[in-house]
Task: inverse folding
């Protein structure tokens, strides 16, 4: 679907009010233009598996019009990107999204300005006909044959990624144990390291490997890459192309994630992000729906740390949503998530860094808090709208999605009972 | 399978060593005979859905020889009960276990000394062809039609239970919300109350209703029956036949569950237990595999509180396992779970209550701890073995299960790819 | 100190910018006037013990110019109230704040428009010369003599409160146990109930008793009033004058506090609030400094629930800050806390309740979130400033506090090494 | 006090029963003699600050007869060591325990077979007359002068340690922040690293530095050495003499500590332990009083990992208790703690490592659990008693401590109102 005409009409109807709001804000914020430019450049990758309804171990309540093919998934992302101009990338998951014809997939994506972000391997499920089972782990497995199969799968994922123009492999391992005694932690770590080294050796020169960590689930006693320390240890031993990937939902209760972000940036080992939100565990809720201030604090560290290393905000880290949409329309949920990410980014850009530095040097805790909260409490939504307006997107993406009844159109095209691959 | 002959042979081979151990223990424990009698009387219900391999939202790795029919599930429990003589009850889950011919199912169970414990309704999944969806809740739902369907389902579950000789309905609700704003908490609670009242009205005179609570999952922002306080409030408003059911995995981190148990007993509102263990959330691991001391402390309160109310330990509360077996053979897992429950019970019976009372009256914290830990550190396994021996079970249930290769027999009978209904 | 002149000058200098901001907001918010009126009426009580620097078990780093007497504490609150016009109440703690001459204290408070909010008893510390020790509890104690002493202390606190014009007693109990076995939970609960009944009997006719709960600390195994369920059970057994008090820091990790608030309001048993913020436990940080969205969600339930019962927002619940200021100037911290509370209240008032109701009735989760976040993301600070302006306070209380160097003035008056009573 | 005569009499009275129990156990455990030898060699250091009653921020309830001087503290440890022969080391805390005459202190300790374990610096409190305040940190501080003072204090601690024959410095830092924005995480880390490097440079050749981490408290937003990953990063950058120290209470809820232990051992970076137990946070309860199975699992990893590196269990790691005794007699509490540590160690030694290895290689999760639980469920107390008997200690240390009324004797010597330095 090409939406430019509709977007134009939609924007026209909202323009006057938007201008009033943006003008008010511009008067308060000297750096408004700079922030708008950075917002325009910032792109968040959409994971292919988040385009369908998610579920829990207790059940799944599918919605209508889910994408049934890789092409339809790309079209979904294209739809999002037309609306918000900030979703210009897709992250595929193998084997759920093996492209039969990489070239045609690539041109379809190109047509909509979508690039292929990190490719993801899957060794946490058994596929039909698979020789070895991952019931007791993959890269950590006590049996060399299982590890070999998992290594080869990862290398195959790299091949698919190369064909699509991706340059990053994300490795998330469910490996771990459910009971004390099940695993020798040291041998599991060393097996994992050795396996990752073999995969690392197969990385093309310009590729990165992102090693994701997670505190628990689906293993309920130990996870072999369980925290940032373990991921960082692996990435350090692997080499310069290996980095840590942070997923906001993969921590123990109360963890200070923004501090981890800062330290990984300091060490040059932060590779990217999986955004989502949660109240209890890896709940995979809409970004910013539960703890928006934490999200802002994380972006505050990201901006500070990337600037300290003179990194390009938009290009050097992998930004991706990784959420599950159990009770919302996936596309609407993703629009809300991207909005929340950009809002936190805008607020972080708004922080008066010079004043913050001085407050810190003087241990003026009250003022430091005022500076952060002044940025957070500012209503930055007009900045986001302006960025979308300038780049051809919609002033109110969710509004137009609903007004145009886009889900109904998709459902008419695809049917009510399509089920997207994914969790 | 009738195992009595094999059990006899197995016991003969272990008898001498057992006698030595039991005699040693009997010399140390004056109340040994009394404890053995209580252990013999204590029965733990096996949930029908725990006889197959469990899974997580990330996948499920099935095992061989799972029971495919209700008859086979009863035979599995019969097998367990022959081995440990402590699993003489089964808890069914509707609609997974609807009996086509209740009478023949009942005689099959009778043959093995198995009774029908609490029956469980399911309004957390949609069944094929169901008129209304539970995507947004069941008994709490904003739409009366959905509530009505869920109420009727519960009443139907009672009918099935009556036909089988059960006298308890367990209501676990996944109802809640995933996002702030989704739900009006008060209206959700009041709808739930009203729905439960209609179900309560349909309870036969000698029935109980157990209202289970859970802190979170599968809803990740709020759960409408989320803690013991909410369950207790509902049970109080419902009436004398309504009780709270405690599942060990349904709490926030660090919760003192034993205190909740004590207070519910004080109020006469404790209805029963779902046993399992966990490190993170509702991990549904083998009972006693992670926090055996907590399990002992819970039994310590149970024994103390039931004795204070002169309750019959074996008859007045519903004791059930509710675990998921992702990486273990379900029957082996259940043997381990029952053993852990009985061990904790035996340790709790061993506590010197008179001395404990005096230590508490004198605020002698050191001594109170010594008394509890003396019981916990005592190796009570010979008491359990003796109880099994006297009641016709096996001295070492897991040993004989493996020696006789019972899973292999079941797999030969049922096939490798049977999948039991359940999570 | 009478600050009206300085405040006038301060406001004049900021007025033009304020008017611009307020006018912009008023254009967006039809209910702006109504919200401003409600903000003016809303008063937050300042606890006398929060006027000095707090500490931890590892140490305390005092600040200069702390109030050394009850008079000075009242003057501190008067200073806050002149600045923000929202701190027109003080909550005293006995025995830290026993007034020698209640009448003169009362006229001092009257002079500044300060009323006496809830009075607080202290049975978690031993005072010099005290006959019985609270080492092993107070109202729960196994020894009747200890309970009696604690009961009498509470009754004495009521007497002090009557003399000052208070009408509420807040009972926070540290009672509990540090080790399994130390306490019989049931007897501890029943002793506590009996003790509270004796105190309740001494309440004047127009008084309330607020029963506070806390999950843990300073007892590290069990707390006798440990959660809302236990507090509610006690309050229900006590009678119509007994209510539950919610302190935001007194829960297990991840607890959904807003749901508790909603249910207590539903039952007519919510008595009041202790505001603070926390990341780990009862950290007692500045309100809104860690989880401002949670604070908003709580106020969202408060507004909804109070409106449903047609309660007066400003008068029927006890609103109090209960924080500890380890690294900030206490008065600055309190200004930040009051601001955060009013901001959350304003945002909650902004929620479009009619639309939210309809979204909930339609299970439109996306829209429900949009409605809440639209309110939260709106920059409501001009509403607060306007409320202060209209009631004679400062447009920027923290700004004027710093510009006038009020702490320096206080330090010159009181000295550097005064230490306020408190934790 | 020299207790050998009394111990002899005490042992005589219990000997017959002990022999019966030990003989029974020896028959079941082929390796009994080897375990007893290892138990005899294993020594746990007693921290000088744990000899007095601890407190919380809410208060402290002192007990009688606390040691008022360093000499008395050494005599307390000597008393413990005579009773259990496993407490042959003391860990001092500077400035609480500055020895005026190191030589005489050293001979006093020698006399009782007590050596000086790690010395501990204190930069989390301000001492009277101190030039710079640690209110905003020490080794992390933005002000070089504060860092310098803290560095010099640590070097002074090393000097005291050298004079006493210690060879280890433990650095625990309270450094961190209470509010977002207060600290630049990266600069705080780098300042800390630089400061530690200066201290490291002052370490004698045969010394170790142990870098302790802690998730939170007394800072409630961030801690600069907050988890094992940060400690390990610092220790790696510092050099071969720097190690990580694990305190059981310094983690987020649910953390798998045993896995951390295993990985640190794998990396050759585990330096030592602070033993205690907890249910909520850094509760500092008696070792083994809340989660004895977790303690066993940790020792299981320690034994496995030390054996894999052919380390001497008794000599190469620093074993220390770090608990607070709020409601128990400190000496009784320490006797219980040492007993719990040795019990877990004995159980871990009992694990059939060969079978466990094979079970792991076969992914036989059920058997792996059986092997661990078989060790844990075995009543190993007679092994501990035998070890004490052979090394001249008491069969029942707590029993003789009470029978001889040793606290009464100490109180008569020292008075009721002595207060030991410490928290």
Result:
């Amino acid at each position: 679907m090409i939406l430019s005409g509709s977007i134009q009409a939609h924007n026209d109807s909202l323009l006057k009010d938007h201008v009033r709001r943006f003008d008010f804000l511009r008067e308060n914020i000297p750096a408004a233009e700079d922030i708008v430019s950075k917002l325009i450049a910032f792109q968040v990758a959409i994971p292919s598996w988040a385009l369908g309804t998610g579920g829990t171990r207790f059940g799944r309540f599918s919605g209508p019009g889910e994408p049934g093919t890789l092409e339809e998934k790309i079209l979904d992302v294209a739809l999002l990107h037309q609306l918000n101009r900030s979703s210009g990338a897709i992250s595929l998951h193998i084997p759920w999204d093996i492209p039969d014809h990489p070239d045609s997939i690539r041109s379809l994506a190109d047509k909509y300005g979508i690039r292929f972000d990190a490719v993801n391997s899957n060794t946490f499920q058994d596929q039909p006909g698979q020789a070895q089972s991952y019931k007791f782990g993959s890269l950590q497995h006590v049996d060399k044959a299982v590890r070999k199969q998992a290594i080869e799968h990862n290398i195959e994922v790299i091949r698919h990624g190369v064909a699509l123009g991706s340059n990053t492999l994300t490795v998330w391992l469910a490996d771990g144990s459910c009971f004390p005694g099940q695993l020798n932690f040291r041998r599991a770590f060393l097996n994992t390291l050795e396996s990752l080294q073999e995969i690392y050796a197969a990385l093309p020169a310009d590729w990165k490997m992102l090693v994701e960590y997670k505190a628990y689930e689906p293993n309920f006693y130990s996870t072999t890459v369980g925290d940032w320390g373990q991921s960082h240890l692996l990435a350090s031993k692997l080499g310069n192309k290996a980095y840590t990937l942070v997923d906001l939902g993969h921590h123990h209760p109360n963890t200070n994630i923004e501090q981890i972000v800062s330290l990984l940036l300091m060490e040059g080992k932060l590779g990217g992000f999986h955004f989502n939100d949660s109240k209890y565990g890896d709940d995979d809720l809409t970004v910013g729906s539960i703890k928006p201030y934490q999200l802002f604090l994380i972006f505050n560290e990201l901006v500070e740390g990337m600037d300290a290393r003179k990194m390009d905000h938009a290009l050097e880290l992998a930004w991706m949503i990784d959420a599950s949409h159990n009770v919302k329309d996936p596309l609407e949920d993703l629009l809300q998530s991207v909005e929340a990410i950009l809002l936190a980014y805008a607020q972080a850009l708004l922080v008066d860094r010079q004043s913050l530095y001085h407050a810190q040097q003087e241990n003026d805790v009250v003022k430091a808090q005022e500076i952060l909260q002044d940025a957070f409490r500012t209503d930055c939504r007009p900045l986001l709208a302006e960025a979308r307006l300038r780049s051809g997107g919609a002033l109110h993406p969710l509004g137009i999605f609903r007004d145009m009844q886009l889900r109904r159109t998709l459902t008419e095209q695809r049917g009510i009972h399509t089920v997207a691959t994914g969790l």
Chain C touches chain D through 40 residues (CB under 8 Å).
